[in-house]
Amino acid sequence: MTSLRERKKADTRTRLSVAAVELLISHGVDGATVAAIAERAGVSTRTFHNYFARREDAFLYFVRERVARWAKQVQNAPSDMSALRILHGILKEAYTRPEDDIVALGNLAVLGERIGFVLGPERRPDIEDILGPLYESVRQRVENGTEFRARLTVDLSMAASGAALRKHATRQREGDSSLADLLDEAFEVLAHGVGS
């Protein structure tokens, strides 16, 4: 059982990471300063540094927590549900969130791009490591559960979601496919192949 102090520390860490991500999404890399993050979270910059050495650490903490939740969803799903179907559900749920929700699908895409930019090439392997829990959860569900198949399932799911987002962003007229429909179509292709 966690103590009140531990819960308060966990809450502060979460508030800081959420504030960091909100600023990164809404104000870009330059607007997500340590001072701005601390102010948004209602703490001092000193308190920020008690939890994170750099702002990038707060961004990564948020992403790790989100990936850990997805991994748990994969683990806790009914045993007869395929990993691809579970991932489709997770990403579709992110789509249904309001646009101003930081875990809405479009915001997660922006977040991933901006974190990749902030980290630069020398720290990008950290991003791959973050997906480790999700890869492992999926590996346990994939037929012939090899690490490669698990990574392929996760990576193709993310790519399918990205393709749906990009297509949705270029809608030309009313009546074009909704993001939900595009996401369903993308996962249909993943499940049954491009030739289907």
UniProtKB/TrEMBL annotation:
Cross-referenced InterPro entries: Homeodomain-like_sf, HTH-type_TetR-like_transc_reg, HTH_TetR
Recite the UniProt keywords alphabetically: DNA-binding, Transcription, Transcription regulation
Q: Which Gene3D superfamilies does the record match to this protein?
A: Tetracycline Repressor, domain 2
Top-level taxon of the source organism: Bacteria
- SUPFAM superfamilies given for it? Homeodomain-like (SSF46689)
Which sections of the sequence are annotated for DNA binding? 33-52
Query: Domain HTH tetR-type spans what residues?
Result: 10-70
Name it: TetR/AcrR family transcriptional regulator
Give the organism the record lists.
Dietzia aurantiaca
Q: Cite the source lineage.
A: Bacteria, Bacillati, Actinomycetota, Actinomycetes, Mycobacteriales
